[in-house]
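In response to the reviewer comment on reproducibility (Comment 2.3), we provide here a single inverse folding case reported in full, input and output, so that an independent group could reproduce the run without further information from us. The structure tokens appear first.
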């Protein structure tokens, strides 16, 4: 098994919890803030050693750089997709093992909190990925190294790259990822999991016996480093909410929040119950 080192959070606190002085970005790009996510109160892992450094290099390469320099090869988007799937699996198994007393709904909420964009961006900050990202000069000048969407995507890509580097052995990847999960304070995880609006909407659908939420998301504006997405969420044929955000996840959460607000109207809620039913298992 490939070993990875640890470093005390205390020695890196200034790096993780505050940003060095730099010129302000040229547009209103969301900046990762240290709060309300109180990240990493224990030891955190350093980046593991890669047998194939080219995989790590790809994981840190944003598509803006490849578009300007096609000879550089692939960007990190396919690795991001793979890493997302691996994180979903590892986080589910981690919560199942660590919290045997929890039911499905609460485990689902905590999993969402562990792997949402804000938390993954904080993991990227803890691992100092921002300065290592490879991107076009234009994206960098627009605040790309501090963009939570780019940071969270890079972290997912690094996880995917490490999995491939270790010949697809998830048991080697697991301790690296779980060390980060362990460093998230339990009280913070509990507080943030209770705020997940997508899970709240799904629970409403489940409790009321209606079809699960369906999200339709598309990019409507913006450039690669700062896109704008729009999302509609529906239960059955009823569109309940729309939302916008600088990532698909943000847009979906905004739409879910709008849907929950709509469902506070008793007539709307009753209409949804009457118009859709939960799909039957074959």
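Designed residues, in position order:
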């Amino acid at each position: 098994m490939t070993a990875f080192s640890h470093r005390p959070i205390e020695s890196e606190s200034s790096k993780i919890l505050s940003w060095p002085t730099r010129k302000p970005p040229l547009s209103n790009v969301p900046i990762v803030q240290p709060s309300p996510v109180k990240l990493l109160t224990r030891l955190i892992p350093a980046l593991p050693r890669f047998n194939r450094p080219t995989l790590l290099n790809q994981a840190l390469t944003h598509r803006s750089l490849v578009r300007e320099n096609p000879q550089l090869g692939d960007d990190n988007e396919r690795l991001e997709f793979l890493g997302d799937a691996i994180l979903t699996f590892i986080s589910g198994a981690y919560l199942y093992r660590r919290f045997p007393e929890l039911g499905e709904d609460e485990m689902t909420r905590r999993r969402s909190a562990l792997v949402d964009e804000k938390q993954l961006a904080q993991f990227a900050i803890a691992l100092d990925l921002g300065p290592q990202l490879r991107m076009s000069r234009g994206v960098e000048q627009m605040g790309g190294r501090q963009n939570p969407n780019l940071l969270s995507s890079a972290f997912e890509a690094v996880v995917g790259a490490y999995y491939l580097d270790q010949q697809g052995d998830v048991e080697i990847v697991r301790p690296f990822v779980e060390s980060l999960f362990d460093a998230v304070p339990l009280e913070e995880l509990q507080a943030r999991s209770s705020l997940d609006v997508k899970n709240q909407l799904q629970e409403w659908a489940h409790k009321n016996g209606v079809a699960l939420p369906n999200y339709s998301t598309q990019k409507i504006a913006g450039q690669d480093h700062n896109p704008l997405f729009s999302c509609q969420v529906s239960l059955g044929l009823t569109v309940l909410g729309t939302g916008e955000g600088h990532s698909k996840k943000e847009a979906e959460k905004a739409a879910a929040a709008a849907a929950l607000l709509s469902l506070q109207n008793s007539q709307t809620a009753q209409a949804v119950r009457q118009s859709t039913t939960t799909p039957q298992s074959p």
